[in-house]
Amino acid sequence: MLGNDSVMRSRYLWCTTLFLLCHAQMHTQVLTNTLPAASSSVTDTESQSQQAQPPTPAADIPDDPSLQLLPAARPEPVPKTGLPVRLEAKEQTHAGDVTTLTGEAVFYYKNYVIHADKVVYHQSTSTVEAEGHLQLEGGPNDAIFTASHGEMHLEDHTARFFDVTGTLGVRHMGKTQIFTTPDPFIFTGRVLLQTAEGSYRILDGSMTSCRLPKPDWALVSRSIQVDDGKASTHNSFFKFWQVPLFYLPFVARNLDETGRETGFLIPTGENSSTKGLVIGEEVYWVINRSMDMTIGAEYWSKRGWHPKGDFRYKGQDLDGLTVRWDALLDRGIEETLSGATTPTLVNQGGTDILAYGRKDLSTNTRVAGNVEYLSSYIYRLAFDPNLTQATSSEVQSNVALTQNLRGFIPSLTLDRFQSFAGSASTNGTPVVSVPEVRILHLPSLRFDVPDRPLAFAAGNSPAYWGLGSSIADLSRAEPHFHARNVGRLDLYPHLEWPLHLGDWNILPEVALRTTQYSGHQIPDLLGTHFNGVPFVTHDPLNRSDVEASLDIRPPALERDFTLSRWHRELRHVIEPEIFYRYVTGINNARQVLQFDPTDIATNTNEAGYSLTQRFYLKRLGPQPCVAQPVPEHQPRPSPVPDSSPDSAPAAPDSNTESPHATESPNCAPPPREWASWQITQKFFIDPNFGGALIPNRRNIFDSTLDLTGVAFLTSPRNISPVVSRVRFEAIDRLRIEWDFDYDPKAGRVNSDNVFAGYSFGRTTVGLGHALLNAADESGSTASVIQSQQVQPFIYFGKPSDVGLSLALNARYDFTHDSLQYGGVQAIYNWNCCGLNVGYRKFALGSLRDESEWLWGFTLSSIGTAGNIHSSTAVFPTPDVLSRMY
Q: Does residue 667 have a pLDDT over 50?
């Protein structure tokens, strides 16, 4: 046996030697790390003595075959300084590299804070074990975890917690909680595993946005993954008030306030008397970080398909673009038209597209615009969910490219104006919607110079000059009237000289104006051509004038009154103004085609006055002032005092005077304007406006348009209506605005608009009243168009308030003795869910008599199911509601 063993041992030796010599990869490898020392407890003296001795062969060749080719994979030892941690506890014990904290233990690491009854810290492995009322705060997601016990590996950013309740997006500032995201993430779990910094996995848990321990709703799942600002789960159940309602195969929720996710939105549904049963769905598409789109459709059981959507783009600074569209593929509704005996199928479908945006090409150049296309006014009137938009008969589009060249402003404008007034019906019979008026500026090129000092070789003079100029291609079309491709060149240089004589301010101004047209009109004074429609001719026309004006503002009159009973001081200020204007040279105003305010200039010789009264109120006695920042040029107190005797204190004592104090105990409060009243009137020395006025017709001139927007000129006159504007805010939370125009010649009120609103507690009540008696034309003769509407409203609470909120509003038309609109909406919000119900009714003539039930159910961080949104809500928009309170 010994001989056989010797032969076998010799054979293995030769085979191994030949294998090592012949194999290409079996050569000596260079190792990046030397082998670790045999013992880590060798002292420095022993280490130096060992290095002085020559190495032994046993140290060069390890006995373990696994260490002959590759070094052992071991983590490098922790530096002597250790991790930047801080420990606090009633009792601390140390055993080697293990530190044990007991009794109100607090462990600080970076921006993490760990509280527990007991904490064990292993310095060599950077491991923390905690148990008993464990609470962790901090991290990149502002996490707050509460658990029974857990284990954390600080260097690897991994951890494991048991019986966890936690939040992401909430930060403690003392005793105050601050939400660092608009919708914090709240969860519970049997086990929480941290796989990396900011990445978690929740086992046998739930997620919600409601307060614990009894959330209104929760998603329960076996596993929830939190990573990259998103929480996702599969095979979860939705619980509402602790009752499982339905199964969800997949749910993803963004935890970042800027997070967006492509997907389907919550389906919509409603029931309307005109639309029938409505069912719809939309898809939200995140195109990139700057663009997104929502597109979808609704099916109206009584009318057909209603596609809709919007596109949004947000660029740098003010750059942006928004496009919204909706349409109705109407299959028609049977109506019995006036004079007919059998029903007729009437199509009320249409398309409405709106786009608005802005692009800054440079610091001084931008393009901006608002473009809308409406194919049918009947579609808007019959189906638009917003009352104000539904009753608006005008559609205006304009796009402008503007550049500022050191005060010289060239611009290129494209403008389109449509008015559908009078085209929706004829004698109560619906007709095809044809624009009543269409005015185009395609294009209009302007060059404007705002007022600037008139410069001479010796320097600037006290006079100012300015220029307005434009060249445009214009078109206007309305029934029986068409003026296409009319060219217009307009130049308007002006010169003014401000004078300040003591407290008197005087502004004289002179100007020249010349306007060249490639066509003009011939008025039908007898009313034989389609009831007074002018004739259009393409013969050129020139209109020129000379203008002079004078604006005098005498010193304001002031007087103070002491209201001792209310501890107030009242100041009454009267601001008078006198103005005069003279224009001559326009002898062909009747022949000018009218496209915009440039074309309504006439001769005039007029004077007028304006008297404004203002009432200011302020408290008597000293009041504390709001702290003001210290100016930058003044030295500021040092936040940390140094050791020198000349150093400034860290914070001045409130009882010590300091030259850097930011508030004074004896500071007079600023006065508040609580009421104002302005009265304006004009006197026309030339009652015929140089022959431009056509008797028994509605006349609109620039002299009347800059006074009031209500047409009143139907015959020669020397006096204008009295225009009154009142603003009253004397009582806190009470606001009254009253615009009143009275015509002494006609002996009637031309307009009377009142808005009054008062808020007390959570309640806001108010009333809006609008009365109009404006000049109009019926055929070729002047007439009066009348309207009177009242809009009462009551708002209790806000849509975002917890508890009950209620809104009621209506619009009643006294002219037609009918209720045009009425709505009521009730909202009840719990902790993180809300129920929304309401009812609306439209009565807009024969085209729309609609009753609509509103409903909505909102879950925080998930969305709202129902048909209530900003355009259908009875509550006003948040910005309007905030101004009422």
A: yes
User: By CB neighbour count within 10 A (0-12 exposed, 13-18 middle, 19+ buried), where does 474 fall?
Assistant: buried
Distance CA 554, CA 559 (A): 16
Which pLDDT score is estimated for 279? Answer: 93
**pLDDT for residue 181:** 61
What are φ and ψ of residue 880, in 5° steps? -70, -40
Check whether 106 has a pLDDT greater than 80.
Answer: yes
* 176/249: higher pLDDT: 249
Cβ atoms < 10 Å from Cβ of 277: 12
Residue 140 · residue 168 · CB < 8 Å = no
The number of angstroms, rounded, from the C-alpha of 846 to the middle of its chain's C-alpha atoms is: 37
**pLDDT-above-70 percentage for the chain:** 80
Instruction: Identify any residues that bridge with 652 across adjacent strands, giving them in sequence order.
Output: none
Radius of gyration, alpha carbons of the chain: 41
Q: In DSSP terms, which residues pair with 288 in a beta bridge? A: 291
Please count the other Cβ atoms lying within 10 Å of the Cβ belonging to residue 49: 11
Name the pLDDT band for 675 (thresholds 50, 70, 90).
very high
Closest CA to 357 of 325, 317, 403, 323: 323
* Residues in CB range of 796: below 8 A, 6 or more apart: 762, 763, 764, 804, 805, 806, 807
24 CB burial (10 A radius; 0-12, 13-18, 19+): exposed
Q: What are phi and psi of 573, to 5 degrees?
A: -120, 130
Question: What pLDDT sits at residue 41?
Answer: 37
User: Which of 74, 150, 139, 80 has the alpha carbon at shortest distance from 115?
Assistant: 150
Structure tokens at 862: 């998930």
Predicted confidence band at 877 (pLDDT cuts at 50, 70, 90)? Answer: confident
- Between CA 872 and CA 824 the distance in angstroms is 11
Burial of 813 (0-12, 13-18, 19+ CB in 10 A): middle
Torsion of CA 296, 299, 303, 308, to 10 degrees: -10
The pLDDT of residue 586 is above 80: yes
* Strand locations in 480-603 (E): 481-496, 499-501, 504-517, 520-522, 535-537, 541-553, 557-563, 568-584
The pLDDT of residue 31 is above 50? no
Distance CA 320, CA 322 (A): 7
**Nearest alpha carbon to residue 552 among 600, 501, 595, 510:** 501
Structure tokens at 628: 């003001």
Rounded CA separation 101/128 (Å): 11
Out of 103-107, 150-154, 619-623, 761-765, pick the least confident: 619-623
Angle in degrees, CA 567, 572, 575, rounded to 5:
160
Longest CA pairwise span in the chain (Å): 145
Q: Which of 173-187, 240-254, 514-528, 850-864 has the lowest mean pLDDT?
A: 173-187
Closest by CA position to 445, among listed 410, 491, 406: 410
What is the C-alpha to C-alpha distance for residues 81 and 61, in angstroms, rounded to an integer? 34
Report residue 881: phi and psi, to 5°.
-65, -35
Distance CA 470, CA 336 (A): 51
Q: 0.85 cut: is pTM over it?
A: no
Rounded to the nearest angstrom, the gap between the alpha carbon of residue 866 and the centroid of all alpha carbons in its chain is 23
Start-to-end Cα distance in the chain: 108
User: 277-288: per-residue pLDDT in tens?
Assistant: 999 999 999 999
Q: What angle do CA 510, 511, 517 make, to 5 degrees?
A: 160
The upper half-sphere exposure of residue 270, i.e. CA atoms within 13 Å in the direction of its Cβ, equals 27
Is the distance from CB of 208 to CB of 236 less than 8 angstroms?
A: no
- 10 Å CB burial of residue 348 (0-12, 13-18, 19+) is buried
Cis-peptide, bond into residue 213, ω within 30° of zero: yes
How far is C-alpha 793 from the chain's CA centre? 25
